[in-house]
Write the structure tokens for this entry.
Amino acid sequence: MDEIRDVLVSGEFDAEQVRHLPIPESYRGAVVLRDDVNLFDGTPTENRDPAKSLTIWDIPTPEPGPGEALVAVMASSINYNTVWSAIFEPMPTFGFLKRYAKSVPSASGHNQPFHVLGSDMSGVVLKTGPGVHRWQAGDKVVAHCLSVELSSADGHDDSMLDPDQRIWGYETNYGGLAQLSLVKANQLMPKPAHLTWEEAACSGLVHSTAYRQLISRNGGQIKLGDVVLVWGAAGGLGSYATQLVLRAGAIPVCVVSSETKAELVRAQGAELIINRSAEGYRFWKDPETPDTTEWKRFGSRIRDLTGGDDPDVVFEHPGRETMGASVYVARRGGTIVTCASTSGYQHQYDNRYLWMALKRIIGTHFANYREAWEANRLIAKGAVHPTLSAVYGLHEVGAAARRVHENTHSGKVGVLCLAPRPGLGVDDPEFRARHIDQINRFRED
Ligand code: NAP
């Protein structure tokens, strides 16, 4: 692995040289173990510490099959799905691996007593399996996390509709939080040349998701002048949603929970900001009873900020805690687009506010290859910037995931895999210099 690292860190290599690098029989990766799935029994979700279940393990190197690629991972990032996997909520991920191995014979190697996590990465292709023509050894890449079979007719208009659609590193094994990773070749995209490895690795999952949720015809299709309510506007998804809303010429109303986060979204260009902690919204009187007067207070606050407009689109992901308010505040004919339920997946809303005011709720999930590619292109063109705030080593992956679980981070938390230190991997320093303030906006150091 040292030889691979040395060649790739030098930045001076060609396809031939990389193709001849010896590939080790095993590599280091961040895993959860099947033996640990009962580790947190009896512990409430909020007290489950990802650092207790995430461990670094020696992984036997898989051989890339048809249509697959083995990638040397320079950097990765923590996504919330890493947190879910590590706290075994809402369920352990080993069932996904078992079903994948059973339903797709070529995936039998994914069913293991370990699960290598991670749904983002930047790196260099080491080896490709049969039938891969678009990519070759030595290509600098990032990966999106849609692993799809496409053997059913259902996925051929939109691959997210394929019954064999999975999230790499969450519902498949050999994810990105490791020195090597196994992907389908159609997950690969060119690495933006102006970014470091860790900056390039942090956007794929959340930015593609926000792109589909807001811009794509499969999501909210926001347009010039729309008012868009963005929950968690300085978080992983939200920090990209805010940029997309601004870039589309729409008006974000950004909800955050601290002045530090308010400053971050203000620096991105947002003007209408609600600090939910300072303003003390309590959307539930008790765990079963929504407080509709609080929905109304929240809606009035939005109108105060916008000069009387209600949101055309609500960017939803906190779930149970906020969904009732989101449905209430959306404008007549407006859209609530949801991709998650961090605070609970059994939602309650008053349906009268939905049907009488002709609103719609759209469910959306990650992105198809085309949407992920378009999102990556926006990063490469400097139209959207990574929101990396902190960087950890692979051996610190538990601490990194804990920060996301505890909501003490902003933007994205990066993890170095083969890259020995931050700051490496930039191939276009001139373009980078033009955007350096925006690239560094979320950095803590
Ligand atoms: P994140 O980085 O933790 O950001 C989430 C933000 O939501 C936080 O910054 C927080 O902002 C806000 N938040 C958390 N709890 C809240 C609550 N009870 N009420 C209001 N706001 C709350 O996580 P993320 O990467 O953005 O992911 C968010 C969720 O989306 C996770 O559940 C994740 O699994 C899911 N997700 C789904 C997909 C998909 O494809 N379906 C893709 C990406 C993520 P403040 O505290 O500042 O308000």
